[in-house]
């Protein structure tokens, strides 16, 4: 009884989910649960079953066995179309309707839900602006007039237009170039609209997973390898596969999980008396971001923590290295 | 050019009527084809095997020659508009089906996945996503089908469905280029119009092209417009040549005022079957046609002489006639011996019982007591006998040949099956052939081409016509007309024998008593 209640309190709860295609097991008895507003990244190589898992969540693929509860309701018992309208869906190929304008594309789900026209318009404008697309310029354009990055911004706006409680994303940024991808990821992460949205994102890019997710679910050939927070995954790889998968990216991944608060600074190192002004970074800021900003600034610009300790790029890297060393000793 | 314009002005009502009929045939068949092929094409998507089967069948249909398809539908649906529309529909299905299938399949899978993932129902996806995206491809198919149908619809005239084909086939039969053009030009314009109009529709959005649905009441109106014809007590089918020739239907209307029919224009080859199967009461035909006997038809006597006489006689090169008087004497043994009914049954033997003209001719001569064993001694001289390209002429050639071989020592070289009247007559004048069977009416109208006033004065008077051709051909071309064989292979109205018996029809004027 208590377990049941616990399950019910999650926004998404997956129990013993399994999918087989003939003899081939695509997903083997996978279970995970997500609280409201959390983000889960499904990570793995191609053929690992991550996309299959995602598509079972909105039943584009029917599970062979197992249960999926969304907000406590078994999806198998819900009308398909109605259920999907409560789940935003973003895919790598974007899939905007080429014969619809940007405005019409974004309005698809709200219209299916018979939202008021004015509400839809206001929401569309707001989302576009948040995603760095001036709505006046873009609402009446057609998808083919937009770049790939712009199209995916519209794709995300479309998925979020009806404020769905759940957002499903299948490699949403993979088809974009490096710079566009980073910009869009930042805009996406900062979206106000996502605060209460429970998100499941499929990616093969660990850095992306570490940047966006509260939990990472690492799959290989349909089998769960590890389900943990990014920090735990990096600190305590469950097995050899996880270690290999993390591989040479560990340093960069460490910068994603560590924050300014983690900086190991020698107490004596107080250069705050220096006359030059220093930029202050808050304690919960990721080191990855701090590093990026420092790299863009002039070499003599100083960085300091909220309590006045000055640091530089070397300190950041040393902290990351120390974090990784410490775990290896464990 | 000027004569074409005159023709158009004189026949503008008929032209408009035929164009509307043509439009009706094309539009109705096209609409029905869309109603069948588009849903079928949509349904086929994702069912590879079914799709291949259907596209295969539709493709096969396309390879059947149009005339064969039209002809093969007659036993099932009879003649007229219905089988024509069905045939056109069958032709239109392939391009529409193929393009619908290809168009729907061509919609990017990502778009369909996104649509499903967002919670659109299958029907919503079809209506708002796949169909609009496939529409340009589907419309291209409809466009192809429309242009094909405008073309094939000209053939509908063959089975009495009307349309511009009536002018085209009538024109070909009458060797009237203006009439051919009056059919072909509007058909071409219709094809271009359809192509343009549908091309425009390809560009506008789906929502607006639902306006095309407004076409349906228009089509229904067009359908109804054709019905009021069913008022006359008698229905008749005519071949395109007869319907337009001055000595055909127009002459009937002049000579038998008050005689009215529901007229259907039909390929000559189908007329006999149409009357035999009761599709119509009367048809035009040739009085000595073997099918009169085969289908148990009754030739109504032309008691007021609406039709010109086509009495058959051998015509001989003047020089040959002088050199071989025995030839003339011999051939004249047949003078007046072959009646209409005898010629009909000879034709029947050859056309329907598939006997050889030689056998039939020999049997005929034996019955007449004119058959003689070949004389053993052959002279050096060879007589060449020509003929036109139909069975009756082949039989006559054999009759002449066996008669000459039996009664003289001349050698005979038969050369039947020459292309037409003009070819035969020129060959005769040049001495390439020595004789061939000709008809008085043909000699009068085709070879001598009399002035309109002379034509009007004597063209239904059998004796006057014979006298005229005899004297003029001799004078102008040194061609000698022998005495007529007796039968008159002219136009005739005919009906089922049974109906004639029931209603007491003997002569054409009996038809005037029908109400």
Kindly describe this structure:
The complex is a heterodimer of chains A (330) and B (515). Chain A is of the alpha/beta class and 330 residues long. Chain A has two domains: 10-249, P-loop containing nucleotide triphosphate hydrolases (Rossmann fold); 258-329, no CATH class. Helices cover 39% and strands 22% of the residues of chain A. Chain A has helices spanning 2-9, 50-57, 80-85, 102-106, 108-112, 117-130, 135-138, 148-160, 178-189, 206-212, 230-235, 240-246, 250-257, 287-296, 313-329, and strands at residues 12-21, 24-34, 39-43, 65-70, 73-74, 87-91, 166-170, 198-203, 215-220, 223-228, 278-281, 302-305, 310-311. In chain A, the strands form three sheets. In chain A, strands 6-7-8-3-9-10 form a six-stranded mixed β-sheet, with helices on both faces. Chain A has a four-stranded antiparallel β-sheet with strand order 2-1-4-5, covered by helices on one side. Chain A has a three-stranded mixed β-sheet with strand order 11-12-13. The two termini of chain B are 44 Å apart. Chain B has helices at residues 2-10, 12-44, 48-63, 66-77, 81-105, 109-117, 122-153, 165-174, 177-203, 206-209, 215-226, 240-244, 249-255, 268-276, 290-294, 318-323, 325-331, 340-351, 357-368, 391-407, 421-430, 440-447, 452-458, 462-477, 497-503; strands spanning 235-238, 262-265, 282-286, 297-299, 312-317, 382-386, 411-415, 435-439, 479-481, 491-496. Chain B is elongated. The model of chain B has no long low-confidence stretch (mean pLDDT 87). The longest helix of chain B has 33 residues, at 12-44. Chain B has three domains: 2-228, MetI-like (MetI-like fold); 235-307 and 493-513, D-Maltodextrin-Binding Protein, domain 2; 312-489, Roll (Dipeptide-binding Protein, domain 3). In chain B, helix 20 (391-407) links the parallel strand 6 and strand 7 (411-415). Chain B is α/β, with parallel strands linked by helices and 515 residues long. In chain B, the strands form three sheets. Chain B has a five-stranded mixed β-sheet. In chain B, strands 8-5-9 form a three-stranded antiparallel β-sheet. Chain B has 25 helices and ten strands. Helices cover 62% and strands 9% of the residues of chain B. The chains are: A alpha/beta (330), B alpha/beta (515). The A-B interface holds A 58, 60, 80-87, 89, 91, 93-99, 108-109, 112, 155, 158-159, 168 and B 108-121, 124, 128-129, 132-133, 205.
């Amino acid at each position: 009884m208590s377990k049941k209640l616990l399950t019910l309190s999650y926004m998404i709860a997956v129990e013993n989910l399994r999918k087989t295609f003939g003899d081939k097991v695509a997903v083997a008895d996978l279970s995970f649960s997500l609280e409201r507003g959390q983000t889960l990244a499904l990570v793995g190589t191609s053929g690992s079953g991550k996309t299959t898992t995602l598509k079972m969540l909105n039943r584009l693929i029917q599970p062979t066995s197992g249960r999926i509860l969304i907000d406590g309701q078994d999806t198998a018992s819900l009308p398909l179309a109605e259920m999907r309208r409560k789940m935003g869906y973003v895919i790598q190929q974007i899939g905007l309707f080429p014969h619809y304008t940007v405005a019409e594309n974004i309005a698809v789900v709200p219209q299916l839900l018979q939202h008021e026209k004015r509400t839809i318009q206001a929401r569309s404008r707001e989302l576009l602006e948040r995603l760095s697309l001036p709505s006046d310029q873009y609402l009446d354009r057609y998808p083919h007039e937009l770049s790939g990055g712009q199209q995916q911004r519209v794709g995300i706006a479309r998925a979020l237009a009806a404020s769905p409680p759940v957002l499903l994303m299948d490699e949403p940024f993979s088809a974009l170039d490096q710079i566009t991808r980073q910009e869009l990821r930042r805009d996406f992460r900062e979206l106000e609209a996502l605060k209460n949205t429970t998100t499941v994102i499929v990616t093969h890019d660990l850095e992306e997973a570490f940047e966006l997710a509260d939990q990472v679910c690492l799959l290989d050939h349909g089998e769960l390898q590890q389900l943990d927070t990014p920090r735990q995954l990096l600190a305590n790889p469950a097995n050899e596969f996880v270690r290999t998968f993390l591989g040479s990216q560990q340093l960069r991944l460490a910068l994603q999980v560590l924050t300014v608060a983690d900086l190991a600074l020698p107490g004596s190192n107080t250069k705050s008396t220096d006359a030059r002004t220093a930029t202050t970074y808050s304690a919960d800021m990721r080191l990855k971001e701090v590093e990026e900003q420092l790299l863009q600034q002039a070499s003599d610009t100083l960085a300091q923590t909220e309590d006045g300790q000055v640091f530089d790029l070397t300190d950041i890297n040393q902290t990351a290295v120390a974090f990784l060393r410490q775990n290896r000793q464990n | 050019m000027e004569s074409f314009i005159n023709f158009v002005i004189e026949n503008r009502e008929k032209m408009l009527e035929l164009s509307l009929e043509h439009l009706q045939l094309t539009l109705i068949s096209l609409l029905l084809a869309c109603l069948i092929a588009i849903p079928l094409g949509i349904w086929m998507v994702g069912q590879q095997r079914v799709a291949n089967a259907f596209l295969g069948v539709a493709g096969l249909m396309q390879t059947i020659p149009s005339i064969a398809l039209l002809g093969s539908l007659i036993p099932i649906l009879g003649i007229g508009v219905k089988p024509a529309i069905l045939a056109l529909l069958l032709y239109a299905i392939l391009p529409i089906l193929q393009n619908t299938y290809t168009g729907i399949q061509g919609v990017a899978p990502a778009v369909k996945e996104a649509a499903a993932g967002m919670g659109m129902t299958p029907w919503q996806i079809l209506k708002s996503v796949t169909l609009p995206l496939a529409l340009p491809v589907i419309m291209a198919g409809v466009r192809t089908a429309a242009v094909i149908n405008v073309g094939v619809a000209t053939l509908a005239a063959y089975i009495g469905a009307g349309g511009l084909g009536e002018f085209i086939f009538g024109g070909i039969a009458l060797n009237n280029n203006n009439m051919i053009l009056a059919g072909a030009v509007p058909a071409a314009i219709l094809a271009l119009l359809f192509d343009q109009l549908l091309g425009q529709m390809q560009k506008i959005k789906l929502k607006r092209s639902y306006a095309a649905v407004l076409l349906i009441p228009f089509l229904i109106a067009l359908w109804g417009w054709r019905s009021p014809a069913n008022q006359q007590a008698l229905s008749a089918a005519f071949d395109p040549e007869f319907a337009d020739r001055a000595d055909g239907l127009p002459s009937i209307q002049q000579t038998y005022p008050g005689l009215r029919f529901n007229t259907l224009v039909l390929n000559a080859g189908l007329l006999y079957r149409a009357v035999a199967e009761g599709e119509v009461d009367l048809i035009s035909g040739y009085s000595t046609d073997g099918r009169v006997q085969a289908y148990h038809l009754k030739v109504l006597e032309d008691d007021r002489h609406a039709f010109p006489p086509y009495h058959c006689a051998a015509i001989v090169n003047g020089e040959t006639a002088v050199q071989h008087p025995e030839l003339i004497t011999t051939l004249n043994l047949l003078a007046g011996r072959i009646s209409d009914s005898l010629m009909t049954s000879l034709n029947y033997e050859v056309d329907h019982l598939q006997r050889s003209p030689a056998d039939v001719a020999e049997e005929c001569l034996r019955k007449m007591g004119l058959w003689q064993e070949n004389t053993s001694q052959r002279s050096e001289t060879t007589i060449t006998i020509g003929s036109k390209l139909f069975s009756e002429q082949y039989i006559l050639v054999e009759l002449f040949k066996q008669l000459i071989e039996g009664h003289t020592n001349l050698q005979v070289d038969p050369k039947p099956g020459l292309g037409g009247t003009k070819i035969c007559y020129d060959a005769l004048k040049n001495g390439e052939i020595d004789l061939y069977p000709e008809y008085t009416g043909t000699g009068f109208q085709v070879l001598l081409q009399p002035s309109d006033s002379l034509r009007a004065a004597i063209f239904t008077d059998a004796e006057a016509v014979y006298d005229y051709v005899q004297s003029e051909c001799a004078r102008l071309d040194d061609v000698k007309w022998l005495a007529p064989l007796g039968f008159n292979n002219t136009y005739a109205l005919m009906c089922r024998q049974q109906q004639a018996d029931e209603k007491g029809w003997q002569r054409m004027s009996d038809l005037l008593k029908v109400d």
